[in-house]
């Protein structure tokens, strides 16, 4: 099956006992057994489910569905993108180990690395990943992981996955990529040899802004370790959120195709506008499109607050990836935890606006932004 077909039918081959067209929701904390022999069968690996924190059909479907599209052997879902990142990192790194991470990280991941991992005794060095020489120079004897994002937030730098994997292989260090912005529709990091791929399924995988979820994919052996972390830390996803994630996932291809094409048109239109200093929109991401996020730097004379007030139907939301077009102000939201000096170095200025382009009519989207720019 090709990507789009696999994308819609992923759930059907997962459980042949099903007769319901839509997967039932196993809204339960535990599974019951006929007798002790039946329970023994679970521990012998003849039955799949016992306790929802350890495993549930709806959350497992989401992990397997994303793994299938990423071209990975296995996948596991968790309660959020951040908990997925934490579980993935802890499957590779322990106290005393060192990680090199890109300095243009998603703000929440930056917080997790700079605060929580450091508190756990895992040292993190932040480096400029657009320069792999600097990454190499940041590595130490005890470095176990190189961490980056396939398309970064909010300036949409596209990671050189080939180069990064080569660097990791040369020093026998694992690589982990946050593929949230690209999704497997555009980029499949495992195809480059990346060891762990992580998603905030809160974004495009779910696609409808109605769940918080995360997924980690990789080889069966590495995902087994990630799952153990999720189980032991109690950061499992709930069954209903797993079910909603699967329902969202089925339309990933349609949504990404439409949203990327709308984004391309918006980026082109805004690039011509006098009140926009710069448009950030990636090039050469994939033959299917360049993604659905457009970031703009407003001209110096523009009042950012007034611009946000004049966006009519476009929602001001501190997230991305829904079917509705929305905007956010990185300095005031995702990059609030990032120190000012680093923000300035990265080019995350107060005049920056990140647009998550939805599935609406192209022309309506362009007109809404042109109107807000004319204030
Ligand atoms: C949102 C996001 C996260 C964090 O995910 P949550 O689901 O909010 O925990 C991590 N990485 C990227 C790129 C994100 O956009």
What's the quaternary structure here?
single chain
The CATH class designation of the largest domain is Alpha Beta
Widest beta sheet: strand line-up: 1-7-6-5-4-2-3
Order of helices and strands: HHHEHEHEHEHEHEEHHHEEHEEHEH
Class by helix and strand content? alpha/beta
Task: Kindly state the number of beta strands.
Answer: 12
Low-pLDDT ranges: none
Report the principal-axis shape.
Answer: globular
Gap from first CA to last CA: 50 Å
Relevant CATH superfamily of the largest domain: Type I PLP-dependent aspartate aminotransferase-like (Major domain)
Mean pLDDT: 95
- Helicity, in percent? 25-40%
Query: What would the CATH topology of the largest domain be?
Result: Aspartate Aminotransferase, domain 2
Task: Give a structural overview.
The protein has 375 residues and is of the alpha/beta class. The chain has two domains: 3-249, Aspartate Aminotransferase, domain 2, CATH 3.40.640.10; 252-373, Aspartate Aminotransferase, domain 1 (Alpha-Beta Complex), CATH 3.90.1150.10. The chain contains 14 helices and twelve strands. The chain has a seven-stranded mixed β-sheet, with helices on both faces. The termini are far apart. Residues 80-82, 106, 108-109, 149, 153, 178, 180-181, 200, 202-203, 212, 214 line the site of pyridoxal-5'-phosphate.
